[in-house]
Amino acid sequence: MSRLHDACARAGRDPGTVELIAVSKTHPASAVADLVGCGQFLFGESRVQEARAKIPLCPGRARWHFIGHLQSNKLRQALPCFECFHGIDSLDLAVQADRVAQELGLHPRVLLQVNVAGESSKFGFRPEALERDLETLLGLRRLQIEGLMTLPPAAPDPERSRPFFRQLRTLRDELAARSGAGLPQLSMGMSGDFQIAVEEGATLVRVGTALFGPRPAKGRGMEISDP
Ligand SMILES: *Cc1c(COP(=O)(O)O)cnc(C)c1O
């Protein structure tokens, strides 16, 4: 947490403009409770099943964001558990989320995941698709679309992430100017590159390993969906 303050200071940003999401996937409720005891209240999970089992065991003051890829058949279970969804990655998923939110009487906050690097292995809107679909997305009355999220290609050197973070911010600026929508949130940066993300305008950083220590390796990488 103090490293995030340092990163804000170096980037000349008010720490109040960047929120830390503690990514607790694979870690037990007791680890979440420890951080809540230190004053960290915002947590991120990337699997619906795991989160549904864990959240009831955690302190009630914890708030939850869903940061993973969401399968449409999990929407009904997931929507009531999280205040914000970072992985809305297609028009089809957004339309279905809007419909289920209507049925459940919810107005979820949403970030649109963008595949800025165009990696075939990653989920997310291509920037061109988002330019085309944004108007339709903003017309989905149940979704509060607050901004964009990205996951750049894994790289040993965090500086490699900078162009992708910058592209996300530029895309946000263009989309906001064109549509008149605010789109204030930029969810970008993880343990290895959150300092760079803060320099490039992140408002939400998703940090797991640097807070909780390493995750068990097997089958627990990011972007792996629930079975
Ligand atoms: C796991 C995960 C993170 C956290 O990664 P760390 O490298 O442990 O900080 C961030 N974002 C997403 C989407 C993830 O799946």
Textual characterization of the structure:
By secondary structure, the protein is of the alpha/beta class. The chain has one domain (2-212): TIM Barrel, CATH 3.20.20. It contains 9 helices and 8 strands. It has an 8-stranded parallel beta sheet. Bound molecules: pyridoxal-5'-phosphate (PLP). Pyridoxal-5'-phosphate binds at residues 23, 25, 46, 67-68, 151, 190-192, 206-210, 222.
Features:
single chain; 227 residues; alpha/beta; TIM Barrel; 8-stranded parallel beta sheet; 9 helices; 8 strands; globular; disordered C terminus; binds pyridoxal-5'-phosphate
Summarize this entry quickly:
With 227 residues, the protein is an alpha/beta fold. It has nine helices and eight strands.
